[in-house]
Amino acid sequence: MYATARTDSTCRYNSTERRALMDPRTKASLLWGVVGGLAFLVLVQGYELLAGTPVSISAKAGVAVAVGIGATLASYRMQPRLFGNESP
Question: Which domain of life, per UniProt (predicted)?
Fold first, then answer.
């Protein structure tokens, strides 16, 4: 009559056995790509404010995507070389 808690490893909500949805290296690389793309958009906005020359939205989006992809690939490729240089 009383419900008992499941303690085996097949329990769906077992907090001791959580699996990552994504490899940490891939996740970090994707986040660096987002940071790179957004940093480029901030720089373009600053250019537009200072120079007074508008840049088309398609050019902004295209280059931001290219920068994001480049940052993602570069951070994924360089991560093993930088692993020992990270701060604690």
Answer: Archaea
State both tokens at 78. 């360089």
The pLDDT score that the predictor gives to residue 22 is: 86
CB burial of 13-31 (b: ≥16 within 10 Å; e: otherwise) equals eeeeeeeeeeeeeeeebbe
pLDDT in tens, 10-42: 555 555 666 778 888 899 999 999 999 999 999
Average pLDDT, the chain: 84
CB 3 within 8 A of CB 42: no
Return d(Cα 45, Cα 39) in angstroms, integer. 10
Distance between CA 73 and CA 36 in Å, rounded?
A: 11
**Backbone torsions φ then ψ of 82, nearest 5 degrees:** -95, 0
User: pTM of the entire structure?
Assistant: 0.69
